[in-house]
Design goal:
single chain, mainly alpha, 5-stranded parallel beta sheet, two-stranded antiparallel sheet, 9 strands, about 5% strand, elongated, disordered C terminus
Length: about 1250
């Protein structure tokens, strides 16, 4: 693809990326100045022409400011032409533009018609160039900033003899695939310096070109040899002058004093909208003078050829500042009807106007015709240009002899080469990032020749893998993203023939980044770059298949990219080895632990393609890395060796004895090097456990000494307090014992069981946690001799520890999990007839039924709390799963005892507790009582306050009801349960408004009602408002349903509920976790007028509530409990006799409570009760009592209000002995405050004792 020597601001960006600026006189050879930059894409050192060069053009400097009267010319133009021929030549330019625009029926003829004189003088008389070598380095540059008038430049290039613009190209103006597009494009038309079009861009590029000329001249010119000596010319219009970018660039040009920049301002006063007076009236002259430019005004730009020549001479005489030549022209000059109007700006003249213009200018020729005398006159530029280049080449040869180093640098710049090792000069990631962006822009602008790509690609490859670790993280994602952008830009900028070999080099690296980069944006950017290049190639091997695999969405997941996308791509030739190298050398040692683990797994996924390579190269390479001093490297290598060995085993590849020996020695070597120390020790312990698991699954040959050493390693990891290390050790132990000790037992297996059982009593909680998990994964052969001791010990470990200092919820969770695993191991093994042993077999199931199930039911009731919250929920969740598993075990065993599968039994809600019923089920391991307790325990968790637990419980119940292979019998009201819990997926059991209305229906069944209520009150009376509203709403809706039942009979829903509430109060007496929310639930129900209209049953229920309150509120310090109890007493005191008197008397005793807030709350309730129920005291005393209550400050000193309290007691007729008894009880409680070790409880007590 064509390129030019245009040195733009993009190259300056690349310069900054490569090195710091240094002056041309710098003596520091390690720092590169801007002048040494490898600014690409120049040619012109070689030429076949040897014509004589023009005379020297160095002129003295003018230091005075621009004057109103132009100074006399300092030098004459080298070439002058007869005026008539000039006019003919100018008209040739005009009509070539008119004819091309007319043929295309599109374009801008006005500017070429007006600017033809200045264009002719520049290209025919002033500029130095070689038409046969558009890339000659020391040529003068021309930029048509007003790019819409590009036919001016195409006509000039055609006349000057450039091969890029022939007559057919002019006729193809603005046509698809032509070399004459609607705006100048340097990558399409050799001879066009820069692509222009957006207004203001061209003049900004011209400033960049002039800047580079001045810089290179300062860097390489010597007193006896001016090797860099060319001018930059530009034509800009009113549109460019209106753009901010043009003003900014011209400001820089004035600041830098770019004396070899000469800009022609086409001052035609016409824009596409009409006269510029409507929008642009500033004084351009004065603005540019203020910017530091020399300004000249050519008043007649239409025919004032000598005036234009004189202006150019004057401009060249000014060396210390750029020059703006304001040329007043007539847009569309020569058109009799459209000249000087906006209609000629951006549309063809039309056939009639073209003919009129021909007549007006006296042009008798056919379209696109160039008169012979004009053609002959312009033909001299080919030999003259070749001579100019030959003279310069000769001068450069002499320069090269004298100044070899400078000549070599300049030569590399001209040829677009980068200095050797230039990328090493990049000081940091910012420079790499900027360099990549600059390379991309150079490629897209056509300034990076395809011949330079082989030197650039290695740098781009390095940038694709740029990742510098800094402490616990790394930098470089922005560099990798920019490098992918460079590859994308290459695909768009170069022809597919140029990119064929380059893509073969880049593709493996792009796909390595696309599959294995840590950052999703880098993966997607690399894949997009590959896709762009494949699309341009059209037939790249497997390109479409890879693009379809590595698409935008599939690469969004890192796991998917590593384990699926990369594995799919690796099957194609040329990608396996680069992928393996990327994983081994960049990802196995990555700073991110997750990436290292994933990389090890990804490496093993590639083994299937070439096991021999992995066995002899990869494993051999990785083993030494396991002892690396770098934590990340040895951790990743340890994981990778284990994963690869396992993958080789799965591919049925047999490792040699030597490799097996080396692999077996990895862990002992790590331990010998004491690499478990420090922070990295925890990471290495997990890796070592996974390594042992992999070699165990691979059945790697191990010496006995190594086996025992590895077992000790696992035991050490089991004792570690980190749960992740324990879990990986447990997984490894499961396979290790089975692979190396079961088949060849040498007394190790029996000792293992005993050892782990002993450790269950260890005071170190970490040891207990690990031991319970270890027992759970031991194989049947190890457990067979001590199975009863194991089960009983694990059952005891599931219970809450007696000593508070020994309590550990994680140990109990692990005990539940271990217990379940042991039950599964024992029962699954015994299903095999070869090892079934009669009575011993039955004893296992009896033990599961009697002890294990009982322990799990207790675990479901574990509500332990610590500073982390309800940690008992972890135990409850594990126990729910355990109950499910044990239920299947028992039911499956029962089904094996009968010829037919037992059918479901629906029975009455009363539990069969009679001896006859028990005898009928004597041979069944899973009986009706167990079924009822099971469902009840699950339902209780399904209505409690934790969303996660409710969902887990509901799903367990759903699986039990609809298990495909095991039928669970004896479930009471199975049909109703199946209606409540349908066999549907994705039901939102964690949503309170969905689950509560369903499970609350079970309150009408006595076998479930108490379990449901004991869980429901926790939600109803809890602190979470949304949960409380959902549960109480479901409960009220349930109570409002009227069925065909006696409201005062035993079948009443309210009656059943009140009995169940009294049961809960009695069952959980003094247990504030349940009692407080239950009391709040009673308060809410009382406020909704529930329980107050049951006639005969109401006094009985209220009496039970009062009995419970007398126990719960006595010496209580819990404000929430006291407030709720006082409110309940208020409700009961407001109903009819005889129960109200008792409640009112109890309420009055709180007027003497030690907490001021409680005294005030009870006084408020007493006041409301007296207003609502006047039967509590004589009518003549009510007013007095209300007055005392209202006027007494109950929050004041308790002794100060003693008189009012006694007076109120007398009015009510309350025995003051009750008051004295309450006071004494309170005093005794203060003297006997229990000592607590819970700092949170102590703080709560402190706050509570303050009364606030």
């Amino acid at each position: 693809m064509a390129s030019t020597s245009s040195l733009t601001i993009s190259q300056a960006l690349l310069a900054r990326a490569i090195s710091h600026h240094a002056s041309s006189q710098s003596t520091d050879n390690n720092r590169l100045s801007l002048s040494t930059l490898p600014l690409p894409a120049f040619s012109g050192l070689k030429s076949t022409s040897h014509a004589a060069a023009a005379s020297p053009r160095r002129l003295p400097t003018r230091n005075h400011l621009h004057r109103s009267i132009r100074a006399a010319a300092v030098e004459t133009v080298d070439v002058t032409t007869e005026t008539s021929l000039v006019e003919k030549s100018v008209n040739t330019i005009r009509f070539l533009a008119i004819d091309a625009v007319e043929k295309a029926n599109s374009g801008h003829p006005g500017l070429p018609m007006g600017c033809a004189p200045m264009g002719h003088i520049l290209y025919d008389e002033v500029m130095r160039y070689n038409p046969k070598n558009p890339y000659w380095f020391n040529r003068d540059r021309f930029v048509l900033s007003a790019g819409h008038g590009c036919m001016l430049q195409y006509a000039l290039l055609h006349l000057a003899g450039y091969d890029s613009v022939q007559e057919e190209d002019l006729k193809g103006f603005r046509q698809w695939g032509s070399k004459t597009p609607g705006h100048p494009e340097n990558f399409e038309t050799p001879g066009v310096e820069v692509t222009t079009g957006p207004l203001g861009q061209g003049i900004a590029n011209a400033v960049g070109l002039a800047l580079v000329e001045k810089h290179l001249a300062a860097r390489y010119n010597k007193p006896d040899s001016e090797i860099v000596d060319h001018y930059t010319y530009a034509i800009l219009g009113d549109g460019c002058q209106m753009e901010g970018i043009a003003n900014e660039a011209c400001s820089l040009a004035g600041h830098w004093g770019l004396g070899k920049l000469i800009a022609f301002y086409d001052d035609n006063h016409i824009s596409i909208d009409g006269d510029t007076e409507i929008a642009f009236t500033e004084s351009v002259d004065k603005r540019f003078e203020g910017l530091g430019w020399h300004v000249i005004w050519v008043k007649n730009g239409n025919t004032g050829y000598d005036e234009i020549r004189a202006a150019i001479k004057e401009a060249k005489a000014v060396k210390d500042k750029p020059t703006l030549i304001k040329v007043t022209t007539t847009i569309g000059f020569g058109s009799p009807n459209k000249a000087n109007s906006y209609s000629v700006h951006g549309s063809a003249l039309g056939a009639k106007e073209v003919d009129a213009t021909r007549k007006n200018l006296g042009w008798p020729y056919e379209p696109f015709h160039v008169p012979e005398d004009v053609k002959k006159h312009w033909s001299r530029h080919v030999p003259v240009g070749a001579g100019l280049e030959a003279e310069w080449n000769s001068k450069f040869a002499e320069y090269e002899k004298k100044y070899k180093e400078e000549a070599a640098e300049l030569k590399s710049i001209i040829n677009g080469e980068f200095p050797a090792g230039w990328e090493k000069a990049l000081p940091g990631d910012g420079s790499w990032h900027g360099g990549c962006l600059a390379l991309a822009e150079l490629a897209r602008r056509g300034l990076l020749l395809p011949s330079s790509l082989p030197k650039v690609v290695p740098v781009v490859v390095k940038a694709l893998h740029y990742d510098i670790r800094r402490g616990s993280h790394s930098v470089g994602s922005h560099v990798r993203d920019a490098a992918a952008y460079v590859c994308w830009a290459f695909g768009r900028a170069y022809y597919h023939t140029d990119m064929r070999n380059i893509l073969e080099q880049l593709a493996p690296h792009l796909l390595s980044v696309g599959c294995y980069d840590r950052e999703v944006n880098c993966r997607r950017a690399a894949a997009a770059a590959f896709q762009e290049n494949v699309g341009r190639q059209g037939n790249y091997p497997h390109g479409i298949d890879i693009v379809n695999t590595a698409d935008y969405f599939s690469l969004s997941s890192r796991v998917n990219s590593y384990l699926l996308v990369a594995v799919s791509i690796a099957q194609y030739e040329g990608y396996l080895y680069p992928f393996v190298e990327e994983l081994m050398f960049n990802k196995i040692c990555h700073w991110d632990k997750v990436v290292r683990e994933l990389a090890a797994e990804a490496l093993s996924a590639l083994v299937k393609y070439e096991p021999e390579y992995f066995a002899h190269f990869v494993v051999e390479k990785l083993i030494p890395y396991t002892l690396s001093t770098d934590l990340c490297t040895r951790h990743g290598a340890t994981l990778a060796v284990g994963e690869v060995v396992l993958a080789l085993h799965q591919c049925e590849y047999a490792l040699s004895a030597d490799i097996q020996k080396r692999v077996a020695g990895v862990i002992p070597s790590i331990e010998k090097a004491r690499l478990y120390r420090g922070k990295g020790g925890e990471i290495m312990r997990s890796a070592v456990s996974r390594f042992i698991e992999c070699i165990s699954l691979s059945h790697l040959s191990l010496p006995e000494k190594t086996k025992r050493s590895l077992l000790d390693t696992l035991n050490e990891n089991l004792r570690h307090p980190n749960s992740q290390i324990q879990n990986t050790a447990v997984k490894a132990l499961k396979h290790f014992v089975k692979a190396y000790f079961v088949s060849s037992d040498k007394g190790v297996t029996g000792g293992l069981t005993s050892k782990y059982l002993e450790q269950l009593n260890d005071p170190n909680v970490a040891v207990r946690r690990g031991s319970t998990l270890a027992i759970g994964v031991l194989p049947y052969e190890v457990l067979a001799k001590m199975w009863r001791d194991v089960l009983l010990k694990l059952c005891s470990c599931c219970a809450i520890e007696v000593k508070p200092e020994d309590r550990d919820v994680e140990a109990r969770v692990n005990a539940v999990k271990g217990l379940i695993s042991v039950c599964e191991t024992l029962t699954q093994a015994r299903e095999d007839s070869s090892i079934r042993s009669g009575e011993d077999d039955i004893s296992v199931f009896h033990l599961i039924k009697d002890e294990v199930m009982s322990s799990l039911f207790k675990a479901v009731d574990d509500y332990s709390v610590d500073n982390r919250g309800d940690v008992g929920s972890w135990v409850r969740e594990a126990a729910l799963y355990g109950l499910e598993i044990c239920t299947y075990i028992l039911c499956k065993r029962d089904s094996m005892s009968f010829s037919k599968k037992p059918q479901g039994v629906e029975f009455m809600p009363e539990m069969p507790s009679s001896p006859k019923a028990e005898n009928s089920k004597i041979n069944s391991f899973f009986d009706a009582n167990l079924a009822t307790s099971l469902v009840g325990g699950i339902i209780k968790q399904a209505v409690e306050k934790m969303d996660k637990l409710r969902e887990a419980a509901a799903k367990v119940l759903q699986r039990i009801l609809y298990h495909e292979t095991v039928f669970v019998p004896f479930i009471p009201y199975r049909e109703k349960l199946e209606e409540i819990v349908p066999n549907k997926a994705d039901l939102k059991w964690g949503v309170p408004t969905f689950s509560y209305p369903r499970f609350v229906q079970l309150l009408k069944f006595s076998c479930y009602s108490r379990d449901v209520l004991s869980g429901l009150v926790i939600s109803t009376g809890g602190l979470q408002d949304s949960l409380s509203k959902a549960s109480i709403s479901a409960l009220l809706k349930y109570l409002q349903v009227v069925e065909a039942e006696d409201l005062n009979g035993r079948g009443s829903r309210e009656y059943m509920l009140c009995n169940d509430i009294l049961w809960v109060l009695q069952k959980y007496k003094k247990c504030d976790r349940v009692i407080i929310p239950t009391l709040k639930t009673i308060e809410i129900l009382f406020s909704k007028k529930i329980f107050l209209n049951m006639e005969a049953h109401t006094p009985t229920f209220c009496a039970g509530i009062l009995d419970s309150l007398a126990i719960e509120l006595r010496v209580s310090k819990d404000f929430s409990k006291l407030y709720t109890g006082i409110a309940i007493l208020g409700y009961i005191a407001s109903i009819s006799e005889p129960i109200n008197s008792r409640a009112f008397s109890h309420l009055l005793t709180f007027l003497g409570h030690r907490y001021p807030k409680i005294r005030k709350a009870s006084a408020e309730q007493v006041y409301l009760v007296l207003l609502q129920n006047s039967s509590l005291m004589p009518e003549d005393k009510i007013e007095k009592a209300l007055e005392i209550i209202a006027e007494t400050c109950w929050e004041g000193d308790v002794e100060a209000i003693k008189h009012q309290r006694l007076e109120l007691y007398d009015l009510v007729g309350l025995d003051t002995a009750l008051f004295n008894t309450a006071n004494k009880a309170s005093s005794k409680d203060n003297e006997r405050r229990p000592v607590t070790t819970d700092e949170n409880a102590s703080y709560s007590s402190l706050v509570g004792s303050s009364g606030f």
